[in-house]
């Protein structure tokens, strides 16, 4: 069965055609970073306007690349929650209109389920049950995934998501938006032991907390600089920005890896999958894999472009919902907030 996935939950307009919930025939992502970069973060109104501009060409391109037409589709899967409400509205309205006009079944997908199932676009696919770390700009949660559609949240962030911490630290270092990729790049050039930033392990639970770490980076930078930070040790700056990036990343990765390992041990499960934008992080990928090798835990890492927002993951989740006949109709409304 061919599914057209659509994701407009945040600042990427994406459409994808996936066959049988695993084979990607196309996965088009039109990003908006150049529009939002000068504001240091996403401006929701600009995001939704850009989705309106891009949704038709992006869907056309996805169908063209896959070599199919709308009549070949078994269903349209659209991300309806959680996310920016104006952005979600564009994808939902578009999907509902096409579904109605062409009589194609519609499936409404939770963005988090899309991320969680993104490892199924790779080979080998994880077997159930597995522990999933979904770590993105809006969420940082650990789930026990028992089957398609059956997920239990084991822990979540009590304040900032890990990606949010990356973006805020990047902003305070003057490195722009989005922060994850640039900090990841700089971290590779820095000393992760240069600054001992705090780690919130919250050992009594599988929850996370990243706001203290973000504040610690802010305090460190304020204390050690007399001028705007630059990318090398320059006049007035008594630290290397690469070292701050590496030390910050080390603190984030330490916590993510240790807590994911704890979740696997507590549940007695030897399979871990990671997903979401921060799962594209080179430091996290390397350390999670190393931990898995040491502990006899299988670790599933989707390709980096399947970690950040994309519609192929929405199509995967949609495929399994369609298999359960979990269809939606023209009364579908997007929701800004919705747990998995
Ligand atoms: O999953 P995603 O594309 O959108 C949300 O659902 O939030 O995740 C975006 C987040 C941003 O905070 C971005 O800075 C972060 O993922 N990110 C990274 C990397 N690439 C993207 N964080 C760390 N390292 C990366 N390489
Ligand atoms: Zn996402």
Number of strands: 10
Helix content estimate? 40-55%
Kindly report how far apart the N and C termini lie.
25 Å
Structural class: alpha/beta
CATH class of the largest domain: Alpha Beta
Our count of domains comes out at 2
Order of helices and strands: EEEHHEHEHEEEHHHHEHEHH
CATH topology title of the largest domain: Nucleotidyltransferase, domain 5
Largest sheet: 5 strands, mixed
Structure description:
There is one protein chain. With 340 residues, the protein is an alpha/beta fold. It folds into two domains: 2-117 and 309-323, ATPase, nucleotide binding domain (Nucleotidyltransferase, domain 5), CATH 3.30.420.40; 126-301, ATPase, nucleotide binding domain (Nucleotidyltransferase, domain 5, 2-Layer Sandwich), CATH 3.30.420.40. Helix content is 42%, strand content 19%. The strands form two sheets. A five-stranded mixed sheet has the order 3-2-1-4-5, with helices on both faces. It has a five-stranded mixed sheet with strand order 8-7-6-9-10, with helices on both faces. It is globular, with a radius of gyration of 20 Å.
């Amino acid at each position: 069965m061919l599914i057209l996935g659509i994701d407009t939950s945040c600042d990427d307009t994406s459409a994808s055609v996936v066959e049988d919930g695993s084979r990607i025939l196309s996965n088009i992502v039109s990003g908006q970073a150049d529009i939002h970069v000068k504001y240091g973060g996403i401006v929701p109104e600009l995001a939704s306007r850009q989705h309106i501009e891009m949704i038709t060409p992006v869907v056309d391109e996805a169908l063209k690349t896959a070599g199919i037409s709308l009549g070949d589709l078994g269903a349209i899967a659209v991300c309806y929650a959680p996310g920016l409400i104006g952005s979600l509205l564009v994808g939902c309205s578009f999907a509902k209109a096409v579904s109605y006009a062409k009589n194609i079944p519609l499936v409404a997908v939770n963005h988090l389920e899309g991320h969680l199932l993104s490892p199924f676009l790779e080979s080998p696919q994880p077997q159930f049950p597995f522990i999933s770390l979904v770590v993105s700009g809006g969420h940082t949660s650990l789930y026990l995934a028992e089957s398609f559609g059956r997920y239990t949240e084991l822990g979540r962030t009590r304040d900032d998501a890990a990606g949010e911490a990356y973006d805020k630290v990047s902003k305070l270092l003057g490195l722009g938006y989005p922060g994850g990729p640039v900090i990841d790049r700089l971290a590779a050039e820095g000393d992760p032991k240069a600054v001992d930033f705090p780690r919130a392990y919250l050992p009594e639970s599988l929850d996370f907390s990243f706001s203290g770490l973000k504040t610690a980076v802010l305090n460190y930078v304020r204390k050690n600089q007399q001028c705007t930070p630059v990318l090398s040790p320059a006049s007035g700056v008594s630290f290397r920005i690469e070292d701050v990036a590496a030390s910050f990343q080390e603190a984030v990765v330490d916590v993510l890896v240790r807590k994911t390992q704890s979740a696997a041990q507590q549940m007695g499960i030897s399979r871990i999958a990671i997903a979401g934008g921060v799962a594209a992080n080179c430091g996290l990928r390397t350390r999670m894999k190393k931990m898995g090798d040491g502990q006899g835990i299988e670790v599933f890492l989707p390709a980096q472009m399947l970690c950040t927002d994309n519609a192929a993951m929405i199509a995967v989740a949609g495929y399994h919902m369609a298999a359960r006949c979990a269809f939606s109709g023209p009364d579908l409304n997007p929701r800004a907030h919705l747990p998995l």
